[in-house]
Design brief:
Layout (H helix, E strand, L loop, with lengths): L1 E6 L4 H12 L2 E7 L6 H11 L4 E4 L5 H10 L4 E4 L6 H6 L1 H22 L3 E7 L22 H19 L4 E7 L1 E3 L18 H9 L6 E4 L11 E2 L1 E3 H14 L7 E5 L5 E2 H12 L5 E4 L14 H7 L7 H14 L8
The structure holds nicotinamide-adenine-dinucleotide (NAD) and uridine-5'-diphosphate-4-deoxy-4-fluoro-alpha-D-galactose.
């Protein structure tokens, strides 16, 4: 059994990845400080998989603790999800974003070298690209992130690439996620934002379930087919699978790699609303509001390098994503809180 330390493993993408890891013969060891999650999410993963998960409360910046856990469980690899991810909040709390996302990655990498662990999968984001110079974004698109969040991820990427270049750590996969949505089809795990959701999909789902009266659409005057923003939404289970494939690849191919994870297709806000209405049978009342500061009109991925490198391709459609998001939201209207 190959054990893998999963930082931030109680979060949205982390829980879905633990399910896929267990299905593919890996044993996740979760460490999370629960700043944006709850141990209930880990209990749900256990319920879903019928397996007991080993987990610890801890901060990824605690190098000593990370090195101890890596040694104690004889981990072969690390998947590093722990991070802060709200773009708007990052402009108000840059110190926290650099501390967790950049220095946290530094602390974890140091712990890995101390413990002799040389395989790392890192959560980066399409937000590192910034205003598109061309579309779709390929991995060689210039990096001009427009927020402290994006720059904290870019800085972590630079650090990891330098560590790889020094020869100190051999196998690093930097994964740039586009817009993950949806949930495990069981309805047992899903995204559970702490406050008012910033992101489109959880907001739409909360309107559908009656927690919020209407959706604000931030801008309908963009240069896009229907005037609303366009993104590359991908199913979180497809995203989770890519992490397992990245670990599998380390068995035979070495060296650093940076990959876009998206579908290669853009959908507008109105496309998402329509698909969600169809999946849920609920109407989503809308209000058109001015553009949100810092938003980009449209971007989507060129995911061909991920297919070439990992044999990975997103399989689920927007309809699948909306159906599974609705299963999760309708069965857990208050998220994990009620449990
Ligand atoms: P999430 O908030 O659900 O999960 C992150 C987890 O990390 C949470 O459980 C949180 O409690 C934990 N955490 C935060 N700071 C920590 C610390 N100092 N020590 C230990 N644990 C800590 O977010 P997610 O959507 O699952 O995102 C996972 C990763 O993917 C993040 O690094 C995020 O930046 C990145 N990412 C997410 C998206 C997205 O749209 N969801 C897009 C691109 C990149
Ligand atoms: N939108 C609305 N109303 C809302 C929320 C969003 O109209 O209530 C619109 C936005 O204006 C945008 C689209 O829906 O056009 C998607 O917005 P999200 O906030 O869901 O996603 P973003 O693309 O802005 O950002 C997300 C994450 C980032 C990540 C990025 C990567 O928040 O952390 O995807 O692609 F880096």
């Amino acid at each position: 059994m190959t054990r893998v330390l999963v930082t931030g493993g109680a979060g949205y993408i982390g829980t879905h990845t633990c399910v896929e890891l267990l299905a593919r013969g890996y044993e996740p060891v979760v460490v999370d400080n629960f700043v944006n999650s709850t141990p209930e999410a880990i209990r749900r993963v256990s319920r879903l998989t019928g397996r007991t998960l080993t987990w610890y409360e801890g901060d990824v910046r605690d190098t000593g603790k990370m090195a101890h856990l890596l040694g104690k469980h004889e981990c072969r690899a690390v998947i590093h999800f722990a991070g802060l991810k709200a773009v708007g909040e990052s402009t108000e709390r840059p110190l926290d974003y650099y501390s967790v996302n950049t220095l946290g990655t530094h602390a974890l990498a140091s712990a890995m070298l101390d413990a002799g662990v040389h395989q790392l999968v890192f959560s980066s984001s399409a937000t590192v690209y910034g205003e598109p110079v061309f579309l779709p974004y390929t991995e060689s698109h210039p990096l001009q992130p427009t927020s402290p969040y994006g720059r904290s991820k870019q800085a972590a990427e630079m650090l990891l690439n330098d560590i790889a270049a020094s020869g100190a750590m051999r196998d690093i996969a930097i994964l740039r996620y586009f817009n993950p949505i949806g949930a495990h089809p069981s309805g047992l795990i899903g995204e559970d934002p702490n406050d008012v959701p910033n992101n489109l999909m959880p907001y739409v789902a909360q309107v559908a379930v009656g927690r919020r009266p209407f959706l604000n659409i931030w801008g309908n005057d963009y240069d896009t087919p229907d005037g609303t923003g366009v993104r590359d939404y991908l199913h979180v289970v497809d995203l989770a699978r890519a992490h397992v494939l990245a670990l599998d690849r380390f068995r035979h191919t070495h060296g650093p790699v940076t990959l876009n994870l998206g579908t290669g297709h853009g959908s507008s806000v109105l496309d998402v609303v329509k698909a969600f209405e169809e999946a849920s049978g609920r109407r989503i009342p809308l209000r058109f509001e001015p553009r949100r500061a810092g938003d980009i009109a449209a971007f989507w991925a060129d995911p061909s390098l991920a297919e070439e490198t990992l044999g990975w391709k997103a399989e689920n459609t927007l309809e699948d994503m909306c159906r599974d998001q609705w299963t999760w939201q309708s069965r857990n209207p208050l998220g994990y809180e009620a449990a």
